[in-house]
Amino acid sequence: MTADTMRAKVHRGVFLAALAAAACAGAERKLTREDFTQLFKGKLAQAGQTGNVALSYEFLDPLQLEDFPGYVPPKRPREGLVLAEETLVEHKGHFDGDIAMDMRIEAGGGPCRVFVFLDQTADAGYVFLFGVKDDTGASRSWNVVGKYRRGQQIDIIYRGSIGPWQRKAYSIAISRKGEGLEMKLDNRVIIKTKDKTYKSGRIAFSGDYVIRRLALTGRLNLAWCDKALSGEAAADSPALEELVKRYVEGVADLGPLTPELRLQALMPAWKDVFRKTTEHYDVVTNVSDAHAERYAQLADAMYAMYATIFPARVEPAPPSMVVVFKTREEFLKFGAPENTLGFYYPASRNLFLLDHVNPTITQMVLLHEGFHQYLHLLIEKPPLWFNEGMASYFETATLEKKSFTVGTPSLRLRRLAAMLQKRSSPPLREFVTITDEEFRDPESVPDNYALAWGLCHFFLHCENGKYRKVLHAYFQALRRGASHEETASKHLVPLLRSKTLEDEWEKYILDLYKR
């Protein structure tokens, strides 16, 4: 088992059954035509009861622009959606499964981008680029589709044909059907390939062009519909989305809570309660039976992942509790701080989680906070740098087929690379002895999160994990009850004093950033 492909094997049959149950439960939700007209200002050509929708935009009616929240029209009105290189304009809907777009655009001189299933909060999805200038000539351009993660180079899936690109009108058709990705330019197929990485998200646009007409066909995420129709999405979206962005960028302290927090109750007083108990977890939610089942199976899978990297025998104990809230209003009313999407509460050993409309976000927070909960079973008071570094490491894990894959770089990598390039990073031998109070310092906590994540990633993955035994020895010493400072001084500091190691660490992080 190599460090780049460490996998915790989990039985997935029940998990897939839970997802199927969730889909069936969602299918019970029936949308009316009035629901669609409440959700969108675009012209409604199709309105299916289970979320299938076909919308068209001519932009002759200014109200249609309301379906693109945050869009600011130019001072001189033009009939279309006017885009710019430095801005990103999203459609408000959240889609699942297959989707198709037909666009009539007026191209400028620069490249055009269309994002499909873009999770703007986690900053990932497919991106179709067209009109990108070729080095061989100013009038030639190429077209590609790739996997996009903000702050990283695009992972190109398919490079389309090279041809002329001019300042004129073009017809663009983009679709995702099953695993198939396709783009047509003036009815000519220029991209046709397959990929199954992203299955849901929003549609977004950026670049040097104007969208004159847009036809959009797909199936809406029913959870998003529920929240949007209730008014919750509109009320909470700006603050919540900004919070998520801060979280994934590592600029918000969302780790183990400060000792000052005191919840008034151990559990929320819900009218409707759904529960699923497994060997390791007791999941309680007010969302649905399907959600309880899905989160329980996901939690058991993450337990297997943690135990593969940090195996340890735990004395028999009641299952760890995971409490999932349906709305942010209920979450905050219960006593959750404003700056959290989920948190582990050491006093009761319970994990509290907000059910975000995008499952990628909820999974990320669950994996992060879940590690705090798991580690507390093994070590009463672990050092915060190690606790947060490993939680940040696990939060990017992805479930593929029958295993969790860990090691995907965090968006904190960009911050860490900048620190190393500016020589603003503290010596590693000093960082591993940092106190919890120093780690939480508001001015340095984003840098501390990035550094902690990067150091854990380095120990686990550098040259197929040649330093992994060092991290495991450190972990086992903490388990035996050795003090934070004593453990770091014995197991980490001697190694980190080496100038060769510091150089190796810096090269590893910067090479990772350039990939």
Write the layout of secondary structure elements.
Blueprint: E1 7-9, H1 13-27, H2 33-39, E2 43-47, E3 52-57, E4 81-82, E5 89-90, E6 95-119, E7 124-134, E8 137-149, E9 155-164, E10 169-177, E11 180-185, E12 188-194, E13 200-220, H3 222-229, H4 232-248, E14 274-277, E15 281-285, H5 289-309, E16 320-325, H6 328-334, E17 342-345, E18 350-354, H7 359-378, H8 384-394, E19 398-400, E20 403-405, H9 412-421, H10 428-431, H11 436-439, H12 445-461, H13 468-479, H14 484-491, H15 493-496, H16 499-514
Parallel strand pairs: 15-16, 16-18
Antiparallel strand pairs: 1-20, 2-3, 3-13, 4-13, 5-13, 6-7, 6-10, 6-13, 7-8, 8-9, 10-11, 11-12, 14-15, 17-18, 19-20
Helix pairs in contact: 1-5, 5-7, 7-8, 8-12, 9-12, 9-16, 12-13, 13-14
Explain this structure.
This protein has 515 residues and is α+β, with helices and mostly antiparallel strands. The chain has two domains: 3-11 and 236-514, Neutral Protease, domain 2 (Orthogonal Bundle); 37-221, Sandwich (Jelly Rolls), CATH 2.60.120.560. The chain is 35% helix and 29% strand. The protein is built from 16 helices and 20 strands. The strands form three sheets. Strands 2, 3, 4, 5, 6, 7, 8, 9, 10, 11, 12 and 13 form a twelve-stranded antiparallel β-sheet that branches. A five-stranded mixed β-sheet has the order 14-15-16-18-17. A hairpin with a 4-residue loop joins β6 and β7 (124-134). α7 (359-378) runs antiparallel to α8.
Span between termini: 22 Å
Shape: globular
Overall pLDDT: 85
Low-confidence stretches: 1-27
Name of the CATH architecture of the largest domain: Orthogonal Bundle
Report on the biggest sheet. Answer: 12 strands, antiparallel
Structural class: alpha+beta
Indicate the CATH class of the largest domain.
Answer: Mainly Alpha
Helix content: 25-40%
Number of beta-strand segments: 20
Q: What is the overall number of helices?
A: 16
Proportion of residues in extended strands? 25-35%
Total tally of structural domains? 2
Radius of gyration: 24 Å
Q: What name does CATH use for the topology of the largest domain?
A: Neutral Protease, domain 2
